[in-house]
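[worker-b] picked up task from shared queue
[worker-b] task type: protein-ligand structure
[worker-b] ligand name resolved to guanosine-5'-diphosphate; SMILES cross-checked against name lookup, match
[worker-b] sequence length check passed
[worker-b] input payload:
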Amino acid sequence: MGRRWAPGICAVALICLAAAATGDPDPNELERAYPIVEPDYGHTKLRLSEQGLEAIRRIENPIAVVGVIGPYRSGKSFLLNQLLSLSCDKGFGVGHMRDTKTKGIWIWGTPIEMDVDGTKVSVLYLDTEGFESVGKSNVYDDRIFALATVLSSVLIYNLPETVREADISRLSFAVDIAEEFYGRVKGGDIAFEPAKLLWLIQRDFLQGKSVQQMVNEALQRVPNDNGDKYIDEVNQIRDSLAVMGNNSTAFSLPQPHLQRTKLCEMDDKELDPLYVKRREELKQVVGSIIKPKFVQGKTLNGKEFVSFLEQVKY
Ligand SMILES: Nc1nc2c(ncn2[C@@H]2O[C@H](COP(=O)(O)OP(=O)(O)O)[C@@H](O)[C@H]2O)c(=O)[nH]1
Ligand SMILES: [Mg+2]
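[worker-b] inference finished, payload out:
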């Protein structure tokens, strides 16, 4: 905790409540994406977005959340649309289609109902603004990442091609901040179960190695007989991820098609059949690991989920 960031620094209040309630939205209006957390002017702080909260408050079943995190332009929004069977012009905004990249955190307004161990659960899909895949992480990106970690039941870490050291340390940082968040929710108890992590490696490059092997290797401690400080730090990061590692799955997806800017115009018949097959398998994997979000040992309906969100002040 606080290894790379003194806890005090994140005590700055970053979320303030947005405008007053807007009344019940029309059900047809729920067939769209809503922001739940947005950056404020200057893109340094976060605030809750009442529109998205209103869509969540309507949900009466226990809520489960599938969140997707990863670098900018790694195909997160496209993937979510594929999981929800939505076209790009209807679903989450995909890179080349719209001017605005996803800012902050968005949900799809209509949850998918699923039966989990005999209980009807409403699954919310959550899209996040990506982080720069090169260069240093920054406080703003890390917070979005961490907030998605706090909110999700299944967290899909979408990575192009491979798992790099930076991806691991970024995740570990998010887990640290997530601990800060939930420490603050209710006076330091373990307030909620951590998300199940799904490492999703895009592309078909694996040359015989399974993605699970690749992730395991990336998370394995490296021998450090000479006591090198850097190796020691990365090893500590790997250890701190063990909590999630035990709870993680790896999955690979091949390219949907070589023409990436035309993807949105293609239907399943035009996409690579192997992609379509694996995408369906991925849906099943998500369906098999999804659980409602438990906070303080209890599931949350929409109103409770929103008040959980409102308690996360930092
Ligand atoms: N080659 C390839 N391109 C993709 C894939 N997924 C999305 N894209 C394209 O990459 C660009 C960014 O996608 P987007 O979903 O907006 O990325 P995001 O920023 O992570 O949400 C778009 O032009 C997509 O059509 C993929 O799996 N393979
Ligand atoms: Mg996006």
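[worker-b] attaching auto-annotations
[worker-b] The two ends are 15 Å apart (CA to CA).
[worker-b] releasing lock
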